[in-house]
Amino acid sequence: MAVYSSFAVTEIGGSHIKHGKECQDASCKYSGDAVSVAVVADGHGDDNCFRSDRGADFAVKCAAKGIAGFVEFHKAKFSPGFFSEIFKKTERPSHDDFGKALSDLVKHIIALWQNEVEKDHAACPFTAEELEKVDEKHRKRFGAGEKTSKAYGTTLIAAAVTPYYWFGIHIGDGRLTALYPDGSFNQPVPWDERCYLNVTTSICDDEAFEQARHYFSFIPSGDSGPAAVFLCTDGVDDNYPVDGNERHLFKLYRTIALTFAKEGFASTEKQLKELANAFATKGKGDDTSIAGFVDMEALRLAVPAWERQVAQEEAASVAGKAAKDAASVEKEKPAKNADLSYGAFVTESQHIEKKQSLQEDKSEQ
């Protein structure tokens, strides 16, 4: 039976420090005998969402509480015997078989969050200072006691794994990425096309439940679940190009997974905090959260496949550089004929520091 360990780190963005703003990200983790949970949230932080730091904190706590209750409630029904009978069937069950129960969980988490927001607003009504920068439309609504949850707006990503199933829940932007023992990866929760540039859906929206997406998968007896699941706020994925964003994130998480496998959980967990800080201060400069859970044994099984991938990418990078150099010698051939591949495999902290150094050189010029 797989044993998962969870992690969660959050670092305040350099731009927030510069402008005297609080950290509007939040994250949490939990690992017990029957479940491992990871959650991240990213408060919106615009002038109309002036309590989004509290909203993000409420969101991760409500998600963790809701998931813990969900797993406990279903423990009796979804026993080892139940799963043994399910997998005697010809067709493997899909996440849709569990869809209603998971939809009920999403509703419950949103309701828990709304309740926390209402209690907070009742105990601490909006002040004149908080409302100073709010636009006229929202100032009128807030003054009338309407749509007050908007001030607490936040995204939410949560994931959990048990011995028999795992699932993910997503409202808004950020990314959930799963890595598997065979070296493959995916982002199983459908992307919300309404999240584009600086626009995102939110747990504070009236249609939050309709906008929420989720994924569920059974883990048959004897089969492996994911080797690792990573959640991140946009303080991570916004540092990468939109085109191929999933592949860039996979390379980041593969680096982290290899570090977990080779250096152990405790050491890598400490390095994750440093990595999150590098994204927050040397990357985009936004608040940054990374959370997830890993099966250390499954990670070790995946190491050979990942190392082969790295070797192939390095070889492709060398070949691409050689082709580019050859093209530059032959002036009549346009540089666009060269194979501009992703480049040599480097750790993400080195990548970010190099990017920052180039930006500083340009500013000095």
Briefly, what is this?
This protein has 365 residues and is of the alpha+beta class.
- Report on the biggest sheet: 5 strands, antiparallel
Query: Number of DSSP strands?
Result: 10
Low-confidence stretches: 334-346
- Percentage of residues assigned to helices: 40-55%
Which class best fits the helix and strand makeup?
alpha+beta
Please supply descriptive tags for the structure shown above.
five-stranded antiparallel sheet; globular; Phosphatase 2c, domain 1; alpha+beta; 12 helices; 365 residues; 17% strand
Please give a structural write-up.
- The chain has 365 residues and is an alpha+beta fold.
- It has a single domain (4-296), classed as Phosphatase 2c, domain 1 (4-Layer Sandwich).
- Helices cover 46% and strands 17% of the residues.
- It is built from twelve helices and ten strands.
- The strands form two sheets. A five-stranded antiparallel β-sheet has the order 1-10-9-6-7.
- A hairpin with a 4-residue loop joins strand 2 and strand 3.
- Helix 2 (52-75) crosses helix 4 (99-123), helix 9 crosses helix 11 (296-329) and helix 10 runs parallel beside helix 12 (348-364).
- The longest helix has 34 residues, at 296-329.
- Residues 334-346 have low confidence and may be disordered.
